Amino acid sequence: MVKHRKALMAYLGDPRLSANNNRAERLLRSEKILLVACKFRYSEKGRVVFDILRILVMTASGACEDAKSYLCSVLKQPDEEIKARPDLYTPLAFHQMQSSSAPELQATGS
User: Fold this and answer.
1) Is residue 51 assigned to a domain?
2) How many structural domains is the chain composed of?
3) DSSP code per residue over 40-94
4) pTM score, whole prediction
5) Is the pLDDT of residue 69 over 80?
């Protein structure tokens, strides 16, 4: 620690650096929960499935405010519709659809 004291204490002099690692811990938490839940991850095929699920969940979390509603909406769609137009079922497409269907806020008052 003494050898790397300057680097370890950099957050004290740079306001852009966080004094804790809460954000990093939160980002890793969902991955760890998913990893523990996927008991099939120990085989090669299971690891491939886990990686696909992880990418899907992380992409949905990044593009949507509510990743759970995105995943539920996609899982309710018939396979034929998704295969015909996969571009309509991406997390970004879901987010854009939700944003466009949100009611506009109107100014009220006198």
Assistant:
1) yes
2) 1
3) GGGSHHHHHHHHHHHHHHHHHHHH-S-HHHHHHHHHTS-HHHHHH-GGGGSHHHH
4) 0.50
5) yes
Q: For residues 2 and 5, give the distance between their C-alpha atoms in angstroms, rounded to a whole number.
A: 5
Q: Containing domain of residue 92, as a range?
A: 28-99
CA-to-CA separations, 58 to 4, 17, 101, in angstroms, rounded: 33, 24, 24
Sign of the torsion formed by the C-alpha atoms of 83, 84, 88 and 92: positive
Is the Cβ–Cβ distance between 57 and 34 less than 8 Å? Answer: yes
Q: Tokens 């137009």, residue?
A: 85
- CA-to-CA distance for 95 and 26, rounded, in angstroms? 22
Q: Which of 53-57, 81-85, 98-102: highest mean pLDDT?
A: 81-85
Distance between CA atoms of 72 and 67, rounded to whole angstroms? 9
What would the pLDDT profile of 85-95 be if each residue is shown by its tens digit? 999 988 888 88
Q: Is residue 41 assigned to a domain?
A: yes
Cα–Cα separations (whole angstroms), residue 18 to 22, 46, 91 = 9, 37, 30
Q: Which amino acid, residue 28?
A: L
Q: Is residue 5 part of a domain?
A: no
